Amino acid sequence: MKINSHSTDMTTSKFIRKAIQVPDAQAKVAAHVSSGSIEKVTLEQAHGRTLAETIHAPHPYPFFRRSGMDGFAILSSDTIEASSEQQIWFRIIDEIPCGYISDLTITSGTAARIMTGAQVPEGADAVVMMEVTESKEEHGEQWIGLKRHIQPEANITPIGLEVHEGQLLLEAGTIIQAGEQSVLATFGVGQVPVYKRPKVAIFATGTELLEVDEPLQPGRIRNSNSYMLRSLVVEAGGEPVMYGSIADDVDTARTKLGEALEHNDMVVTTGGVSVGDYDIMGDLVREGNMEMLFNKVTMRPGSVTTAAVINDKLLFALSGNPGACFVGFELFVRPTIRMMQADAHPYLEEWTAILDDDYTKVNNFTRFVRGRTEIRNGMVYAKPSAARVDESSVMITIKDSDCLIVVPPEKKGIPAGEQVRILRLPTGHVR
Ligand SMILES: Nc1nc2c(c(=O)[nH]1)N[C@H]1C(S)=C(S)[C@@H](COP(=O)(O)OP(=O)(O)OC[C@H]3O[C@@H](n4cnc5c(N)ncnc54)[C@H](O)[C@@H]3O)O[C@H]1N2
Ligand code: MOO
Ligand SMILES: [Mg+2]
């Protein structure tokens, strides 16, 4: 390739970057996030979505006095004298399968045959299970005999045992999973108000990038970051929109970015954010038609992670190095997708763990080391995923990680056995 004239003058703007701390960078992003719009979806579509309105119970639950057994509805006071020596007989006056109600009232000496889940008839204050009764037929009438005392309310679930009318059922911001589905269905919420999934445009920059189905060529690699990002967006509850990959050309990037911004709620790119000659995303965010929030963060990997705002939409220009791209997503993009759906806990959950291997690498930025947790004797242990290398260029350990071990910028490493902070990665949980 011909040699072009490139500036390595350290006073040019691409080299002058003000590094900010991760929490400050997160706060800058958060200041530009507003929770997205609301839509109604069917209950089937609601799984994993975030509820946009608080829901109160429109009625008590159970809604009627419910039999807990297949048996007979009786008056418990009729059984006071019942014993192994003294059998009490009841005349069956009705039969109540589930879904039916009786229009008769149970009075002393009568009973109704009733099934589990059916509404207990008026007058009855107990249900006795079939197995403890004897039955007989006399003059065309059915009778049951009972030799034991039955407590009032036995086997009857009272109205409102689980939920009383007006009770808070689900708060806005709740993620709808199996238990929430049960609640919504029980209370007749068939159209569920949820936050719209943010549409997240993804594109990769890099002249070296090949499509996944292209054969390898010298000096080139396949674009893996776009697919990694796609999965991460799905996991975070966003709707990924793939814009492929482009060569390292600032005009192409500008056009692509414009197109992606027009049709989506935010844009995530990967590659070209460092100080290299072809690091075009870095150049693009300095052009002036956007507000750059930061282009250097005191973290590794991902120190070159860049964020900007264009027409109220966020652009995350993540590093091309796979490890850095991954960490940049987890610390900045995932929380944004969660915040747009009003998640009360948008950031990665923080735990304390015991470091399971010595960590010797020293650096002056906070390091987010991909790691794996294990519970032993009730304690959480975290081990770096990579046996030797934990470079930001390393791709292979992403799949082996369920946490980021936070290594503060200190002069020495951390020996095994010390307590460390870890950030839990919600891997595999599709929201
Ligand atoms: N002189 C300096 N060089 C570098 C610095 C620095 O401060 N001064 N920072 C280093 C750090 S730290 C990182 S991280 C990288 C960041 O690089 P970029 O974000 O500009 O990314 P690229 O240069 O485009 O690519 C880096 C690396 O990643 C591969 N890549 C790119 N896109 C993809 C993709 N879609 N899928 C898989 N792999 C991808 C690319 O081929 C490169 O190998 O800069 C350091 N350099
Ligand atoms: O941005 Mo790099 O990933 O700091 O190592
Ligand atoms: Mg670069």
Helix-strand layout with pairing:
Layout: H1 22-30, E1 38-42, E2 55-56, E3 66-67, E4 71-74, E5 88-96, E6 110-114, E7 126-129, E8 133-138, E9 141-146, E10 156-157, E11 168-170, H2 178-186, E12 191-195, E13 199-205, E14 209-210, E15 221-222, H3 225-235, E16 239-246, H4 250-263, E17 266-270, H5 280-285, E18 291-294, E19 299-300, E20 306-310, E21 313-318, H6 322-339, E22 350-355, E23 366-376, E24 379-384, E25 403-407, E26 419-424
Parallel strand pairs: 5-6, 13-16, 13-17, 14-15, 17-21, 19-23, 22-24
Antiparallel strand pairs: 1-12, 2-11, 3-10, 4-6, 4-7, 5-9, 8-9, 18-20, 20-21, 22-26, 23-24, 23-25, 25-26
Helix pairs in contact: 1-6, 3-6
Structural class: alpha/beta
Bound molecules: ligand LQZAQKY5, molybdate ion, magnesium ion
Unreliable spans: none
Strand order of the largest sheet: 7-4-6-5-9-8
Global outline: elongated
Question: Number of helical runs?
Answer: 6
Function: Catalyzes the insertion of molybdate into adenylated molybdopterin with the concomitant release of AMP.
Keywords: Magnesium, Metal-binding, Molybdenum, Molybdenum cofactor biosynthesis, Transferase
Catalytic activity: adenylyl-molybdopterin + molybdate = Mo-molybdopterin + AMP + H(+)
Family: Belongs to the MoeA family.
